[in-house]
Specification:
CATH class of the largest domain: Alpha Beta
Shape: elongated
Strand order of the largest sheet: 3-4-5-2-1-8-9
Order of helices and strands: HEHEHEEEEEHEEHHHHHHHHHHHHHHHHH
Structural class: alpha+beta
CATH superfamily of the largest domain: Beta Polymerase, domain 2
Largest sheet: 7 strands, mixed
Radius of gyration: 28 Å
Distance between the termini: 108 Å
CATH topology of the largest domain: Beta Polymerase, domain 2
Strand content: 5-15%
Length: about 425
Amino acid sequence: MSEPPAPLRIELPPWMVEPSTRAVLDALAAGAVEARFVGGVVRNALLGLSTGGRAGTDIDIDLATPAPPKRVIELLEHRGIKVIPIGLDHGTVTAIPAAQPGEPVRHFEITTLRRDVETYGRRARVAFDADWAADAARRDFTINAIYLSPEGVIDDPTGGLADLRARRVRFVGDPAIRIAEDVLRILRYYRFEARFGAGKGDPQARAACRAAAQLLLSLSAERVARELIRLLETADPRAALRMMADDGVLAVILPEARRLDRLQRMIEIEPEPDPLRRLAAVIAVDAAAVQVLSDRLRFANAWRVRLRGLVPPWPFDPNGDDVTQRRALYRFGADRYRDLALLQTAEGVVSSGQLAGILALAGDWTPPMFPLTGRDVTALGISPGPRVGTLLDAVERWWEAADFAPDRTQCLTRLAELVKKRDRSL
């Protein structure tokens, strides 16, 4: 009789041997409680990706265990580990061990193995009597249903490792059932395709997404916006967005996205990914329509303002002389100036040579500070009010037109001339 194959092991990634991770594992092991890592940290470890937050600080690490939540809490608190019992109905507690100096803060979400008894959209009545295979069967994608023991041993009940190697994003079990449990999984599917897929998609998954696309209208705007932005943040979302368009999904969540061609060129020329600039590239709207879009997706005010400033008609002439370019950079600021140049290049009205010069100017030229303030106006006897702003604006525009050369004394002289001129006209 042949020997069973040796278990697959991986070299422990750095986050698994950090003091905070070991503190949680040791606390559970002290009570003979088994725990395995699961989800994104395992997937990323298998791909050799780093496990860090977006700013390289706080991250979440998922653990699964057969132990009930109360036992998990008891063992963690016995070791002095902070526990947040949020998600107890779903069998989840959050452990936040004290971080060592220089070590990132880790949030460990520890969930008891479970199976769904009844589902109600996103919500479900669960039973905490599942084994590892049953727990895996209720997860979304096979590449998220791979377990990793503290010793580095892989348990792969759904074939996620082969899918990961083949760059195949596949739902666990019946895609239609997984989507019925949470419609947001449609958008997560395309986001995962952008990050981990080969660009064509899984036929069964795409068919289920097409069939359920209209159900996306039942989701909250915040959830849709969050997934959309996370998709646009990926290194190259173009193939996933094309699939979304072909599958009728993009028309449901973002009917304004009619310029995939412009986004294609934007991604080819942009210095770094920027989700809002990419959104501006893919939508075909004016300022009024972008307000409707922002309201629908409930963007924060800063995002609304920035997006409104990036849609046509673009207030920037890329063919102007150096003085015009410096004036535009001063007026718009480096970020918007650069964004407008990239958008117009993606539109085809700015050449690659022009873009290089514009980007160089945005990086090298530091706009000067306008040397006057409102106090300089009131010092001339002008009462506080709208006239102060009007006079300051007039001097500032004269200063800009002179390529910012006039100094404070010259600007004060110009201000005095304008005050006298307006006084004589009264």
